[in-house]
Write a structure and sequence with these properties.
415 residues, 24% helix, alpha/beta, FAD/NAD(P)-binding domain, five-stranded parallel beta sheet, single chain
Length: 415
């Protein structure tokens, strides 16, 4: 009997999961269906570069259907609910898609409406976001006409997709302004709800030092309550106010609306609790989760979805064969951090080991936690890897899903 595998979400995680499963299962053994509300696949890492004229918005979007392997069925529908008891995905057109195995890969949803001042008339005049395509393009125009004043980069709250992106924006803004001869006329301020620039001590020490070298003021423990556009102030819950002339904000992130509408499926923010090792949902053993949709102690980044892919595939095979899940995800994440002036840092870590200096993926390789032109080239080359390796669900030669230990300097972990 052919198993029905349904993937909700046609973004990075859903596409690579469907493509891996299609290669693993012949059509007579499993049907694979991907459901998404639109046929617009966005290369999200490219959004960071649009405001600085380093990427064209039109080149970041492709058809979802064309990224899926032959034999994967794509349904362009909005999911409104998952009925866990009957095993059906309910869509806005009234249809119900039955499944034997469900893969939740619906990513994150920007929720600016949760912060007063981030929606409504005039929102994009002095305050912007680069976390969606339209906002990133508008910010490019705003930066092009910005001649000086206070530029404030503010993260509303955690978790967010690509947690290093706001820091990268600060670094690129510093470079951009120096190139235009405006850096001396601009105060750069970074507001974060965290107690440091990043969550990991060794990495935080390096990044805060880099921010200080570039003259970026860091304001920590700043959880935004309101963006007062009339007075051009960002106000925290503890009453602190930071004035701005141009604000770049990262809105609150939530899970897909259908997750909250499905009894027993998600948490308060609409993310899906799952076993951090097997990727099985806490709700049902035949429901798996991958990528940003998951409530896991791993960052919400494309590399995480890539490394989760092999684990997800192996454990779905085991489930259909009525075996215990054999594969374990160790929380592996690998992120380039663009730092401007054609340089970047690289961090590679997992659940148990924070980012440390060294080399990746072995003792000879890319430098870790250190600026280099080689890392910048890696960051820029990632777009081609994304379309031709990551989305098709292929493995990178010599790089498995579990974090490589060789080359890492554990002795340099900050106290």
């Amino acid at each position: 009997m052919s198993a029905r595998i349904v993937v909700v979400g046609g973004g990075t995680a859903g596409t690579l999961a469907a493509n891996r499963l299609r290669r693993r299962f012949p059509s007579e053994r499993a049907s694979i269906t991907v459901i998404d509300a639109n046929d617009r696949h966005l290369y999200k890492p490219g959004l960071l570069f649009v405001p600085f004229g380093l990427a064209r918005p039109s080149r970041l979007v492709r058809s979802r259907g064309t990224q899926l392997a032959s034999g994967v069925v794509f349904l362009e529908r909005s999911v409104v609910q998952v009925d866990l008891d009957s095993g059906h995905v309910l869509c806005d057109d009234g249809s119900a898609v039955g499944y034997d195995v469900l893969v939740l890969a619906s990513g994150v949803r920007l929720a600016p409406e949760e912060t007063p001042g981030l929606t409504g008339d005039g929102w994009s005049r002095s305050a912007h976001s680069f976390y969606d395509l339209e906002g990133s393009a508008r910010l490019a125009a705003a930066l092009a006409s910005f001649e000086g004043g206070r530029l404030v980069v503010a993260t509303m709250d955690m978790p967010i997709a690509c947690p290093v992106a706001p820091l990268e924006f600060c670094f690129l803004a510093d470079w951009h302004l120096r190139t235009r001869g405006l850096r001396a006329k601009v105060e750069l301020v970074y507001l974060t709800p965290l107690d440091g620039a990043f969550t990991k001590a060794t990495c935080n020490r390096e990044l805060e030092g880099l921010l200080a070298d570039k003259g970026v003021e860091v304001v920590t423990d700043f959880t935004t309550a309101e963006v007062d556009r009339a007075r051009r102030r960002i106000v925290s819950y503890d009453g602190r106010e930071v004035a701005y002339d141009l604000a770049v904000v990262v809105p609150l992130h939530e899970g897909a609306a259908y997750v909250s509408a499905s009894d027993g499926l998600g948490d308060a923010l609409g993310f899906v609790p799952a076993d951090p090792a097997t990727l099985q949902s806490r709700a049902r053993p035949n429901v798996f989760v991958i990528g940003d949709a998951a409530d896991l102690p791993a960052p919400k980044a494309a590399s995480v979805a890539h490394f989760e892919g092999a684990v997800l595939e192996a454990n779905i095979v085991a489930f259909l064969e009525e075996r215990p899940p054999p594969a374990r995800f160790d929380g592996h994440a690998s992120c380039f951090i663009e730092s401007g002036f054609h340089k970047a840092l690289l961090i590679d870590y997992n659940y148990d080991l924070e980012p440390v200096p060294g080399h990746f993926p072995a003792r000879v390789g890319l430098p870790l936690l250190r600026q280099s032109h080689l890392n910048h080239l890696g960051k820029r080359a990632f777009e081609q890897l994304y379309w031709h390796v990551l989305l098709p669900g292929r493995e990178l030669p010599g790089l498995r899903s579990d974090m490589p230990e060789s080359g890492k300097r554990r002795d340099l972990i900050a106290a």
